[in-house]
Design goal:
It is a single chain. By secondary structure, the protein is α/β, with parallel strands linked by helices. It is 43% helix and 14% strand. Strand 2 (55-62), helix 2 and strand 3 form a beta-alpha-beta unit. The N and C termini lie far apart (64 Å).
Length: 246
């Protein structure tokens, strides 16, 4: 029987050793470099933020219910808190004064698509155009382009996620849904649901309805009593680690 011994001093061994040294050095500078050629972090939606801070964010999707928007903006200002209004592009273009009011009072203006089409039924190019068109409308009105995107109907797939990522938009979902668009959702139901499910880093989804306008003061008061500070989504995202589970 012949035993073949591979010399560690051979050219192949020396080359392998050099590669290992280079990879180790690269890992020290950036641990993710070892995975750069084999994997890529997928674009993911944000349902909540993992944080130790007692902060939450109210999000209000606006493409209808215009008559209730001033009351919501006014209540936020009266209570000394802020929210993030995710506005549709066509709605914003038709109501620039309300968009300016949101911005003036310290609320964040986000993107809720241009004309509320189902994102999952659109092509990549169409989704990009839809988001960009809304950003341009908001930019013209308040001088700032949205950085967060709430897809209409809460729909998203890999194409929607990639489109949002390509525009450096954070796709935002929700932790607590008030379901305020449903006529059977009473003020008591909405307030109770939010206060019972409240947790640091939560995102609360609302819309401009008559019941939401009545529930908002109680929700704000209840969350303040629990020790929460209500901040914009942009602030919330900076407070911890975005998570994809609700």
């Amino acid at each position: 029987m012949h035993i073949h011994v591979i010399s560690l001093r051979g050219p192949l061994a020396r080359l392998s050793g050099l590669v290992l040294v280079l990879l180790l050095a690269a890992w020290i500078v950036n641990p993710r470099v070892l995975h750069a050629s084999t994997s890529q972090d997928p674009p993911l939606p944000v349902y909540r933020v993992q944080t130790r801070q007692s902060v939450m964010a109210l999000t209000i999707n606006v493409v209808w219910g215009t008559e209730h928007v001033p009351a919501l903006i006014g209540e936020l200002k009266r209570a000394g808190v802020v929210a993030t209004f995710m506005v549709g592009g066509t709605w914003a273009a038709a109501h620039p004064d309300l968009v300016r009011m949101m911005q003036r009072d310290g609320d964040q203006v986000g993107n809720h698509g241009y004309d509320h089409r189902h994102p999952n039924q659109l092509s990549y190019a169409a989704i990009v155009a839809d988001i960009e068109r809304t950003n341009q409308v908001v930019q013209r009105i308040v001088g700032l382009s949205p950085t967060v995107y709430a897809p209409p109907y809460g729909e998203f797939n890999s194409t929607v996620l990639k489109a949002a990522r390509s525009l450096n938009m954070t796709l935002v979902m929700w932790t607590i849904d008030t379901i305020d668009w449903r006529p059977s959702s009473s003020v008591t139901y909405m307030v109770s649901k939010v206060l019972k499910k409240a947790a640091p880093g939560s995102l609360v989804l609302m819309h401009p309805t008559d019941r939401t306008a009545l529930a908002l003061p109680k929700i704000i008061a209840g969350l303040k009593h629990q020790g929460y500070h209500l901040v914009t989504v942009a602030h919330l995202l900076k407070s911890g680690i975005p998570r994809t589970d609700s």
